[in-house]
Amino acid sequence: MKSALGYLTVTKLKNQIKDLLHSPAKLIYVVFMAAILIFSVVGRESQGPLESPQPLYQLTAILTIFYTLMFLMVLATGGSSAKTPMFTLSDVTLLFPAPLHPNRVLVYGLARQLGLSLLMGLLLLFQYGWMSTVFSITWAHMGLIVLGYAVCIFLGSFCSMAFYVRTSGNEKATPVLRACVIAAAVLYLLWMAVSCKGQLLPLLSGGQDYYAAIDGCAGFLSSLPGLLFPVSGWVAGIIGGLLTADYTLVLVGALLCVAAIVLLAVLVVTCKNNYYEDVLETAELAQSNVTAQKEGNFNEVVPKNVKVGKTGLGKGWGASALYYKHRIENRRSGVFFLSNMSLIFMAIVLFMSFVMRAAMEGDATAALIASFAMGTYMQIFSESLGRFNRELIKPYIYLMPEPPLKKLLYCLKETLISDSIEAVALFVPVGLIVGADPLSIALCVVARISFALLFTAGNVLVERVFGTVSSKMLVLFFYFIALLLMMLPGVGLGAVLMAVLPEAVALAGLFLGMAVVNVAISVLVLYLCRNLLQYAELNNR
Amino acid sequence: MLSISGVTKKYRKTLANDNISFAVGDGQIGILLGPNGAGKSTIIKCITGLLRFTGRIEINGLENTSVEAKRQLGYIPEMPAVYDLLTVEEHLEFIRRAYKVDDEAYTQQLLERLELWDKKDKLGKELSKGMQQKLSICCALCHKPRVAIFDEPLVGLDPHAIKELKAIFRELKQSGCSVLISTHMLDSVEDYWDVANIMVGGRFAATRYNDGKEGQDLEELFFQITEGRQGGGAL
Hints:
Structural class of chain A: mainly alpha
Strand order of the largest sheet of chain B: 6-7-8-3-9-10
Radius of gyration of chain A: 25 Å
Shape of chain B: globular
Helix content of chain B: 25-40%
Oligomer: heterodimer
Largest sheet of chain A: none
Helix content of chain A: over 70%
Shape of chain A: globular
Distance between the termini of chain B: 24 Å
Distance between the termini of chain A: 41 Å
Structural class of chain B: alpha/beta
Number of helices of chain B: 8
Order of helices and strands of chain B: EEEHEEHEHHHEHEHEEH
Largest sheet of chain B: 6 strands, mixed
Number of strands of chain A: 0
Number of strands of chain B: 10
Order of helices and strands of chain A: HHHHHHHHHHHHHHHHHHHHHH
């Protein structure tokens, strides 16, 4: 007879495949995504090799940054997140009390976590198009990048677990450990700055050679000292070494990774505190999320330590009370108008605006449009309905004796204010960086706000029309399709105006054309979706 | 007055409520009984306007989804509904503002009765399930509804809260409020119900009025209907 853990793994996998085959919606989605992937690959392959691809060390540098961010994020969120826990509650209740050696159970959990990470890493395959265009990489290279990502997430979880078992019960240890990780990251950045001072210092004295600075940093991040950042740097070193056929990097990275795995295993296995307590908390959280989803709800992720601060709504009467309630909730959840995701995307767009300015050789209009296009693309992913979605899971919004449209608008008020602040905070600096004139910057901000409104309306539309669809993947798929369709008229009109108007007002035509159409479509969609808050059943997720 | 006429609710192919009709008059307490999956929570969610249905539901003569009807309705869901990041007191301030009522003293009275006043500055996420249920009850009652719907209200409550909630049921009845309670705890409603509806398979299998005559044992009636026990008369 097979071992219990082997039987469990194989049976779960078999049942997941069966479930996929018995669920037409999921199957269609998988087939569709596979088709898009194949289409993008075939399309790319048919173009043939590029004449002058970028050097692969730049890709290694990108991997170092990406892996390190992912690794630190996993570490910061406590390893096995509630979305992809190392153990489910069934594992906890059935395996932990069973007469199985804890180390074997741990190996089972780690293998499961690695599998899940690999599955999530598959989404990286969709980046193959641009990576292949820029760096001329092959599918084998792409596979290595995905594998590196999975290993990085896996080691991040493992590190987090090791840290937990070694520090649990010691209140002072956790902040010390956190300070060590932050110090390591800061030291690493300082080391990079010192190593690349030859390229970075001229920028401080008004130099314009951004490409040299970026190339200098890429050189550091893809060479041996730069690849020594614990775990994520080593993994990037292995993958980068394989890409560039630098086997010294591969050897050093692999040795360090193996040593890390052995060390972490020793730390976990030899500790008198077992890892069960850590796992139990995450598994319970994940299970409550699953239960809530089955019951048509989803749980809000709330910070562990909330600073209550000033109490009381103070303002609001009728539907407007929703807005003041959201302000309190945002304050306590640590969101001050801009979410962490928005801040990260803003930093990327700001960084890219320097690159655009260098790439467009002083053409401020082209650089502004390119930065705007990139910012809008990212906005698709960063735009959310704020507390609106969370409001839908409680009965109060439906029971509140106010007209549904009024409730909808007050529910979205905080999102629209944050979006406006974000538009100003992002595109005023971007405009100044690329050297655009004040009018262009102002119109760019207006266009950005119109896209925020459009994407918000798109979110509401998806809630209204597909609110009863329980598959998150399918909803995301519908969301992208809906946004694409809603964006087309505005982008189309803007492009036409830019083409036909005289050069002096072409940019204004582009931004204003998009803004007017986007606002009109958004208002229409919000009006048509006004009954979203009439019945909870429309959002039975 | 709560009036339900010919309400049918389907989830795709499943018929959750099949042509349900009943009423709970002013100052009456109606109870819904039935085994798991009988359709009790579904009819309650239809009454509160959370689900779409065919048929008609009126709250004091107003269509249940109208703004005016919602103003007169209080609903205590089966699962406590609290906001993690609001304090206990802020929950009630939010409801008062949302319903445009300004009776802080009544709110305090409710919190004191359910032993939540000393926890008024605690966040929703810091409350135990039982305390969340108490807060949910306060939220549903603080705007003084004319029709109050309770879905399994006693689950998770401590003995003091159960006693207090039973007293609140009686007070609501005396004040002319129509009260509908769905429960599995038959003994908890034994002594104050006016009309009992037993649901099986989405339909009313029996309706009985508490008119003081003999043979009103709800438990006996319940098992007679749901398990087909001999000895009970047809209803």
